[in-house]
Amino acid sequence: MNSTSSHRLDLSKFPRHALLEGPTPIQHLARLSARLGGADIYVKREDLTGLGGGGNKLRKLEFLIGEALARGADTIVTVGARQSNHARLTAAAAARVGLRCELVLTRTVPRFDRDYMENGNVLLDALFDARVHDLPGTVNALQFAEERANELRAQGRNVYVCPLGGSSPVGCLGYADCAAELVVQSQAQNVAFDRVVVPNGSGGMHAGLVAGFVALGLDPSRIAAFTVYGNAGHARTVTLDKANQTVRLIDPGLSVSDDAISIDEAQLGPGYGIPTDNMRAAVRLMASTEGLLLDPVYSGKAFAGLVENVSNGKYSAGQKILFVMSGGLPGLFAYRNEF
After folding, report:
1. Which contacts (CB < 8 Å, 24+ apart) does range 115-118 have?
2. Beta strands 40-45 and 26-28: pairing type?
3. Which residues does 303 contact at the CB level (< 8 Å), separation at least 6?
4. Active site residues
5. Which pLDDT band holds residue 91 (cuts at 50, 70, 90)?
6. What is the dihedral of CA 41, 272, 159, 64, to 10 degrees?
7. Which of 40, 42, 46, 33 is nearest to 289 (CA)?
8. pLDDT tens digits, residue range 287-328?
């Protein structure tokens, strides 16, 4: 994975607040690769970002919190599902920088057992002192968040509304930056990755990586995503739009072509946050061979897709596949009964 372009990924013009502890490592999964008997598998440990239990959303939040602070915000409001990793990390980041945090969480996943409703990310939200608005899945969370923000503004608060998943073009800059980090690491480790495999939920990680690849002169079609949120057609449209908006922030003269976005819906199952047998098997496989913990909503389903593609020969012997492990460990405790 070598950059052949003269473009430099200069993001210094964008407000940013450091939340990560440094580059996340890339590790070779030797036992797993031997078990699968095909492609050589590596993992980028986005679960090791540090703050608040770790996870990929912190990359987006560096730019979102940076923008909020630059605007003089004293309060941040965001939305997500009941067990949202983004909400948990927004609350942690807000605690770190001294912002009041309000989370609008919806019951969009059809689970109402005590673990799902009270454990996992929800427990951590409370520890980070976020105020939680618990909404039924039928309520428009984005509209509620805007209305709540206006109420707070009327009380004299300076409110920053953070989008679902942190996946605005500004948030996606975090994963454009990660693309540059990947280039440095792959060169340092002398490994050229044939595919980079990611989950696609709100689309921000995928879109940001694509934008970064385009800005660096790399082939964005090497990035293969597995949707965990909706059908592939919708996810592709959303991701392409976000990738284009993001790359144009970096360089108005750049754009992302239609064929740059690869999304597979084979592991989605019945829907977002609903467990599948393939996900359960993938979580157990990673844990039992490498001691690494995937989550049941994002990385578990995406890794199940990687395993299937090795098994069916789509990822063949000799290829080097990088799996971007997004984090989400607290979700395992919310889905305790599934394992």
Report:
1. 115/333, 115/334, 115/335, 115/336, 115/337, 116/82, 116/83, 116/334, 116/335, 117/82
2. antiparallel
3. 197, 282, 283, 286, 294, 323, 325
4. 84
5. very high
6. 10
7. 33
8. 999 999 999 999 999 999 999 999 999 999 999 999 999 999
**CB of 296 within 8 A of CB of 326?**
no
Q: What is the C-alpha to C-alpha distance for residues 301 and 294, in angstroms, rounded to an integer?
A: 9
Look-up of token digits 């060169």: 187
Question: pTM, whole model, 2 decimals?
Answer: 0.96
Q: What is the residue type of 157?
A: R
Q: Which residue has the tokens 């770190």?
A: 96
| Domains along the chain with CATH numbers | 26-55+168-338 (3.40.50.1100), 57-166 (3.40.50.1100)
Q: Which helix (H) or strand (E) holds 146?
A: helix 141-154
